[in-house]
Every structure is written in C-alpha cells, then in structure tokens.
Amino acid sequence: MKKIKFEEALKELEAIADKLETGELDLEESIKLYEEGIDLSVYCQKQLAQAEGKIQRLIKKLDGDIQVVDMD
Amino acid sequence: MKGFISVSELNEYISGLLAADEFLSDFWMKGEISGFSFYRQSGHMYFTLKDQESAVSCVMFKSRNKGLKFEPEDGLEVLVRVYVSVYPKQGKYQVYVQEMQPYGKGGLFLQLEQLKNKLEAKGYFAPENKKKIPEMVNCIGIVTSQDGAALKDILRVIKQRHSSCQVILVHSSVQGDAAPAELAEGLKLINTHGQAEVIIIGRGGGSFEDLMAFNTEIVVKAIFESKIPVISAVGHEIDFSLADMAADLRAATPTQAASMAVPDISRLRMEVVKYQQRINRVMERRIGHYSETLDRLMLKRIWKEPHILVNEKERKVAEQQERMNRCVVGFIQGSQHRCSLAMEALDKLSPLKVLKRGYAVVYKDGKILRQIKQVEIGEYLKIKFNDGNLGVQIMDKEMFLNEKN
Predict the structure, then answer these.
(1) Chain A contact for B278, CB < 8 A?
(2) Cβ of B138 and A51 within 8 Å?
(3) Are residues B317 and B248 both part of a single domain?
(4) A49 contacts in B (CB within 8 Å)?
C-alpha cells in the first residue's frame, strides 16, 4: 500500500464506508472496496501504534550542527 | 570692552552656558507631541513637546531617529532623552532628542499596533497562509523555556492523550532581551531538524511587558516562515499577541495548545474501529442478502424434483399424440360412412334390380340395342332377362311415327 497520511487514510476509509452503505455496487465491486477498506483500517491502526514516545532536546552546536539529546 | 556684543556672540555665550550644565546635557523628559513634521529630504524630525502649560521645540536628527520602533505622531505622549541647546538662527533654545519611546502602556500598544499593521501588510496574518494542523501527530516540536510551567503542562497533556508521541524541545528564554532571537532560532532549528509535525511556541501567563518577546518582528517572522504548522500558546492579559496572529492556530494556554496539537489517540482508535465495524456490517448484510436470495432460489421444487421438468414434457407429447390419433380415427370413420352411402346409391342403380322388376335388355352382336332402326327383319338378337337369356329372330318391325326422323 502506498504511503499516505493518516488523515487521508481515515478520510478514504470513511468514503469507502459511505459508498458501501449506498448499496449501489455489484458484489464484485463491493468486495474490492471492502478489501481496500480493511487494508486502510489496518494501516490507520498501525500508524496509531507507531510512535516511540521519546522526549528529546535539540541544541545547535557552535559549528551550526544540530545535536539531539535524549531527556528524562 | 566694546560696550556691546553681537547677536551671534550672545547666542554662542548662552549655548556655552547650556553646554556646561551637566543636567541639561543629558536627561529624560516627558511630553506630548504636537506639530510633528518629518523632512523626507534631510530625514530629520521637527516637533513641539508640550504639557498643559508649556511647550518646547524639539528636533530629532536622522542619525537618531533611524532606529525608532514606532512612528511619532501628534497627540502621542513620549519619553525623550535629550540635551538642550540654542538654535542660533532664531535665537531660541530647543531640545535635541537622542532617543524617544512611547510613554507608558499606551505607547507600547501604539508601537504594537504599528508593527501589527506593518506585518499585516506583508501577509503574515492572512488566513490563506495558515497551515492546517494535522489530525494525527506522532512527533511534536516545542519552543519554550525548559524550566517553565508551560513545558510541564504541555508534556502532561501529551502523556494523557498520546503517550507514545515523540517530543522535540528547543529551550529558549521567553522574556528579556535575548528571548526574541532565541525563540525565532528555536523555530528554525525544529524546521531544520524536520521531524516534528506541529510546533508549539509559548509561555505561561505574564504581564504585558513579559510577553513582549512574542510581539517582536523576528519571532512573528519565524512563525510565519515555519514550514511546520505552529500553534501559539502565550498566556494573555491582552487581546492578542502578534505571535498569535501569525500562528496557524492560537491557544489560550499551553495546556490547550497541547490538546490542539496532539490527537486523543484512544478517540482515533475508536474512530478507526468504528469504520471497520461499519464496512464489516455492510458486507455481512450484503452477503447475507445474497445468500438468502440463493436459498430462496434453491427452495424451488425444480431443484429437488428435477424429473417434473421431464414429466411435463412427456405429458405434452402424449397429449399431442392423442390429438393426432383422434384426428386419424375421425377421418377414417368419416370415409367409411361416405363409402357405404355411395355403395347404397350404386346398389339402387344396378341393372339386375331393374330386370327383377320385369324389364329385359336386348343385345345385338354383344352390344345393347337402343333403337329398332339398327335391326332388320330376320336378324338374330339376344334378350337378357332376370333369370336367363333368349335367342330370337325378328319377324316384324314397326317404328313409332314420332321416332322416324
């Protein structure tokens, strides 16, 4: 699956749910959409679980480089 | 001694007196500006400072007014740092302004208002330049004092809502002379680092003067130029700070800024699950509907007793055969009837029957004789009766008159 933003994924997921609920699709189309929806929801959940929870400090050194220091 | 002096000498003398006076050579004075004029050509400013009773002429040379943070105008109360001297051409003394600042809060507001107008004209506050705060943020940048209550508040809220969110802090003083440059630098640093998805810049509440760093052009510019969306969180006692106006989103407090910046992860989780359930429900209903239709179709007798299809056909064939048979029999019967009628009619016409009634047939040379003109006297004929034949010889011949011709 291509990399998209969480918001986009969530929006797409909503659109798929809406589309499925209209019931205007034939069975094959709706199964295809359903699979896409499941992929998206898994992707969203992965995004939600991804972060590390670190607290870091950025310091600019004299030579202009950025130093990253872990806090806590 | 000439007994008199020139005008120039007088002015020079007084000038000297004034210059020698330690107090008059450098002091602060308060007054209200009137008759302000700015000479574009020379760059000098001329105006009068007055209070309720008095007025004094002032001049502020170009070299001195270049760095003014506000634009002087009539009616404005200002504090000026001055020395006093004589303007020899008119023989009047005037004050030479070295520094000038708006007096009191009114003055600061004015300065702010003017800076605001300037930055507004540059488009720093334009709504169309505002960036959207992403809904899902996993890395947040913070520019504030590492020792302030603001940071503690922000970190606490982040932990509550999204405990796995990464935090990137750049420490900066938030008041004092160094604050503006440090705040601006902090924003740039986080942008250069590039990982944060949103930045909070701010401090806890303070007096109007404490918050002045957030009203400086350098900070406002850095906020405007940040590629990463910025949320301002400056504790207020005034209506606005310029930092707020330039920020993509304004929070009243650091706590509020944190909840605006970081998603409530459990709410988002629920949202995703909600969509999952929705599409699952739809599909279940869909498939249920299809299989019900299928079941209904399968219930039909045809699938359980397929032979009825054949039976029906067989019945139809038999029916046609029956019809056909009926036709043929009818035809034959009809023919037989017609046949016997014909035979009956034939029977009635049989010559034997006529002979039985007493008639006889005459033959000459084996052919039926129909007229006597065909025979001569003395010829032999044969007469056929019902019960046999007679051979006869003609003795006499008499023709009926009406038969003669």
Answers:
(1) yes
(2) yes
(3) no
(4) 164
Whether B337 and B381 share a structural domain: no
Q: Where are the alpha helices (DSSP H) in chain A?
A: 6-22, 27-48
Global pTM exceeds 0.80: no
pLDDT per position in chain B (405 positions), as tens? 568 999 999 999 999 999 999 999 999 999 999 999 999 999 999 999 999 999 999 999 999 998 787 888 898 888 899 999 999 898 999 999 999 988 876 667 777 888 888 999 999 999 999 999 988 888 999 999 999 899 999 999 998 898 888 999 999 999 888 999 999 999 999 999 999 999 999 998 877 778 889 999 999 999 999 999 999 998 764 557 899 999 999 998 899 999 999 988 888 888 889 999 988 888 888 888 888 888 888 777 777 777 777 787 888 888 999 988 888 888 888 888 888 888 888 777 777 777 787 888 889 888 888 888 888 888 999 998 888 899 999 888 888 877 554
Query: Which residues are CB-contacts of B320 (< 8 A; sequence separation ≥ 6)?
Result: none
Cβ contacts of B302 within 8 Å, gap of 6 or more: B308, B309
Query: Is 0.85 exceeded by the ipTM?
Result: no
Compute the nearest-CA separation of B133 from chain A (Å): 11
Where exactly are the structural domains of chain A? 6-70
Structure tokens at B69: 């943070």
* CB burial of residue B374 (10 Å; 0-12, 13-18, 19+): exposed
Is position B270 within any domain?
no
Are the Cβ atoms of B192 and A55 closer than 8 angstroms?
A: no
Please tell me whether residues B255 and B222 are part of one structural domain. Answer: yes
